Amino acid sequence: MKKSRKIEPYLYILPALLYFTVFSFYPFLKTIGLTFFTVNANGQVKAFAGFDNYIHVLTDTAFLRSVWNTLVYVVLASPLAIFIALILAVLANKKTRTSAVYETMFSLTMAMSMSVTAMIFKIMYNPNIGLINKLLHVKINWLNDPEIAMVSVSLISVWLNIGFNFLFLLAAIRGVPGELLESANIDGANLYQKVRSVILPLISPTVFFLICSSLAKNIIMAGLPIILTEGGPKGSTSTMIYYMYKQAFGNMSYNDAYAAAVITFLFTLIAMLVSFSFEKKGVHYS
Amino acid sequence: MKKTLSFVMAAGLILSLGACGQGASTKTKAPTAAVPEPTTAAQTTGTPEETKRISDKDVEVSFWHHMEGTNASALETAVNHFNETTGKEYGIVVTPSFQGSNTAEKLNTLAQAGDWKNFPDVCQVASAGIPAISGYDLFVAPEDMYAKGEDILLPRESIIANNARTFTYKDKLCAIPFSNSTILLYYNKELFKAAGLDPENPPKTIAEMADAITKLTAKDGNEVTTYGLNVQVKRYQLVNWVGGEGDFNFIGDNEGGRAGLMSKVTFGEDGSLMTYLNEWEKVIATGGYKPVEDNINEEFAMQLSAMAIMSSARIAKLNDLIGDSFEWGTAPFPKVNAEDKGGTAVGGSGIVMFDKGNADELRASWIFQQYLGGEDAQYDFCTASGYIPMNKDLYEEERMKTYLSENTAMVAAVDQLMASNPNVQEPFDIVTGDINSIIDEEMLAFAQGTSDKQTTHDNIVNKCNEKLEAYVKVNAK
């Protein structure tokens, strides 16, 4: 009886464990193993390579550029999408007759397909016929200027993620006890003080979740460059996973692709660990 | 403990990332089967219709394609027509299935996993995928089927030589050409007239094009309001220009990868790249050339560029965008030098088939593969999509003559394709992605004045060769 009770919890996680083993753990370990071999275009192992594949990738300026681009993308896209969503959630906190309308409007971006959004932005970004240049009265080559192309791509990502972040943050803010906000009002706190000292600490678990999920998602982003820029101009929008994709399927070089995948994993792992260290200091579960 | 737990959780959250690169396997052998004898059971008795049936039961053929939108509808119409006509006679039912824009990539993934069972019977692939696909053990070349001489619906001679050459690898026709195109000059006839140029006599060479750009470019102060020409020179454009020099140019060794693995580019050592750059310099010097493509179709349709260089597959799209708003036309791709005779390459896709060990399915696949290259399927598909028919006999038919007389933009494409040397083709350069990026970056730097002609030349040659060398080192047998 005691023994079966001990086994019971493991049985609950068994289906998920099997799923992860087949689709994540096994291919992941195999990928790591193959990074130490030379593999031809048919996927056949040709020879032991030691760390050659890693050295090749880490000395490839195209990959180093893609590491930098990924960092720029993550730094721009992740916090901005959460920050804007937070502002919208604070504004939408109070329930009114029209709540349903603007809540739907603010969260609508999560219902948009990335490829459709990318194509719409491509037209809007056009330097000659695009809406953005017309409205701003500027002549910026948003997607074809290497200096700003990654910023332009990041802004699309921000727009796409606002809806998802908004929904989570709105639910969290509405979960903040009313009496605490009332006390803050009595104490004469303004909106900024209420957000900083009352709302943010109480919604910090949600913010933490959004930071973790957006970091992981943004570090492995490749869709927007594939659809919009093919990594250009001059490699300025090539991310680490786009590099991996291009090496594997554009150039049939699995050696570079495997090594790039593992290096990207390490980057993501480090970002996650940093996030988890933030959890200790900044996340309040009470 | 908490630290360890945090680490494990973080790793678990993102572990699936590492699997992104997974795809290879050491398995490469497929269940091999020689090209079998077609089943003859149904050929002996019954009515004439019944004798054509391959088997008592309908034979199912799975067909992967990469067409989207209008083109997908056109393709599905062709498949339905097959099922209702030829398919019915032979007892074949084809099921089409869209597999994304790169079917060769999907096949390659299956091949690496040794998952031959899930291969389709028939697949539409871009020509660049042919060298890899022809190496799969279950691949069956149309060349071998023609050699057997059975169930011939599409005579080998009906395939235009240029289109056949596009899908020929190591002297074997590896696919039946299907949706083919060629590169063209698109020009705005009204802007030509306004600039004092003859709209019925568009530029024939790069030098003539440079003169036209100077006249067509409109400026408001220092700002260009109408560009003379819009084209971003990438691999596709460059290999067409260089490939058409002289009688023809293979671009790389081993006949540009068609006779064997391409290990280096040859356009550096034979001087053809420099010849092209010498002429292209004239275009850049006009100041009215737009070297990046933002929305090339729309900008041409809005008269923001007077000329554009694009695939003939864009004709239908431009017809939609422009409508009757202004008069425009297509012309042959301007040559590097007036005396060049090579012409241009054939772009697009072909149909390959696989032998999954079932003789009936193989026979059915062969019949369907040929049907797609037949006059009816080519006429229906091409008139709906704007691709150029690859069937020589179709051009003799009245319906095609009528179609061309009503769609003059297609005439330049057809004439150019027919007049080109079959040896002018996009090379099988394998590391296509890298080569495209190298040419794109170097030509853009040249156009923007950040790289001189010699540096552009040397960088293209050296960088392409580095990539090819690295590939050959790992993949040469």
TrEMBL record, chain A:
TM region positions: 12-29, 71-92, 104-125, 148-173, 257-278
GO cellular component entries: plasma membrane
GO biological process terms held by the UniProt record: transmembrane transport
Keyword Membrane in annotation: yes
Domain of life per record: Bacteria
Residues annotated as signal peptide: none
Domain ABC transmembrane type-1: 67-275
Pfam family, one: BPD_transp_1
Membrane topology: Multi-pass membrane protein
Compartments where located: Cell membrane
The entry's keywords: Cell membrane, Membrane, Transmembrane, Transmembrane helix, Transport
Main subcellular location: membrane
Similarity comment text for this entry: Belongs to the binding-protein-dependent transport system permease family.
This protein's name: ABC transmembrane type-1 domain-containing protein
UniProtKB/TrEMBL annotation, chain B:
Signal sequence segment: 1-21
Record bears the keyword Transport: yes
Gene Ontology, cellular component aspect: cell envelope
Keywords, in A-Z order: Signal, Transport
InterPro entries: Bact_solute-bd_prot1 (IPR050490), SBP (IPR006059)
Annotated Low complexity bias: 25-45
Predominant location category: other
Keyword Transport: yes
Subcellular locations according to the entry: Cell envelope
Family: Belongs to the bacterial solute-binding protein 1 family.
Name used for this protein in its record: ABC transporter substrate-binding protein
